[in-house]
Amino acid sequence: MHQAQAFIAMPFDQKFYTVYKTIRAACESLNIKVIRIDEVWAREDIYKQIEEEILNSDFVITDFTGDRMLEVPNPNVVHEAAFARTKKKYLILMAQDHKCLPFDWRTRPAIIYQMTPEGLSYLEERLVLGIKALMEKDDFGRDYEEAAAHSFVTGYPPQMPQYMPVGYAPTTMNYVPPSNNTSLSEIEAHLISKQAQPVAVNSNHSSRLPKGFNKKKDRFVCRIDSSEMIHIPATEFTMGFEDEEPEHQVVLSEYLIDKYPVTNQQFAKFMESGGYQFQGFWSEAGWQWRVNNSILQPAFWNDEKFNSPDYPVVGVSWYEAMAYAAWAGKHLPTEAQWELAAKGSGTNQFPWGDEEPCNKKANYRSQFKQLTPVQQFEDAPSEYGCIDMAGNAWEWCYDWYDDDYYENSPRENPLGPGYSSDEEKVCRGGAWTYDVDTLKVYYRFFGIITLRDKSSGFRCARIL
């Protein structure tokens, strides 16, 4: 016997998760199966699968909240609903404001709800009534067998999306990156141009901030992902120590680095802004990997143990971390940039100094047994003021990994050995699952470039 199915088209923002649970509860109370596209693994092309799932569903529930509202991105709901409408699928419309509905749909019946306990209770009640009314239709549930016979609409969305800007008008189907975004190739070219160039360490000159970055008094902010960044002036320091030898002098141009690791809340903005769809944020190899493996979100995105908004995002490969960085107008820190930000200009063993780690300074094995908020260790900053650089999550660096790189690395702005035949990238800082020795500021580790581990995260930097 066929079990009825509903396709859910709605924002993926975490703050909408309670709304999704309300929709799911209403459907499950009537033995309706629900499908939301981020919960199924795309077999080939994600847009083709969206069409297929809509065609295989008996009706579609659409939450338009976000369209024409800058603070609530909602990139694809209109297109999914329009496709369902052209295929004559039953639709249940929802929104938190009737103005979010597409202009020519605003006179149609819809459930207007509020994100409050009372509002969600009302939403569930109205959904149950609406679904029951649909189930009483003579043709309800009869078209699922015909779904395979339908041809897929080519070009849905109208073209392979390059980027869906936040707050786009639903009648506009052009995917154009906003002017404050920079492609990965442009950012890498700027970073590489600094390698091995003479650096004026004692200069009082301060570089002009790139577009998208502001200075407010002593605070530096990246506008795109709202991250606070730390300014590190041109500096010469001693890199390496003990097991990570040889110690050698490195000179770095001035740069900015994130005060905190990138959080789930920040990464959600990247996803909602079309970060997994715009190829310009990705390297050629990274884009091919993403497409071949149907990667559309971090590995643990729907796992409550890892997806708290203020936890560092984990389960991201080096490719995904670099794509996020490019979206934000930044890059992953080089290994040298990361070590200077953690170590400072002296000989600290840990970001906060030489005092042994404890559960008031870092999250490492046997301390918390889970991720912790990135702000939890505000009282254990590095010399420059960076937080959470020891433990919690490993942080991807820009460089390929090579055990022997320190023996012949350039003195100015080293970028790593160029390529690793084992496809290993540098990771720094230790993690919640690793021992205390990995927290040392000079400890070197590595990960395969496609690794999406529960302890792999990142922060970003921007050379000036």
UniProtKB/TrEMBL annotation:
SUPFAM superfamilies: C-type lectin-like (SSF56436). Residues 227-462 form the Sulfatase-modifying factor enzyme-like domain. Pfam families: FGE-sulfatase (PF03781). Coiled coil: none annotated. GO terms for molecular function: formylglycine-generating oxidase activity. PANTHER family: FORMYLGLYCINE-GENERATING ENZYME, SULFATASE MODIFYING FACTOR 1, 2. This is Protein NirV.
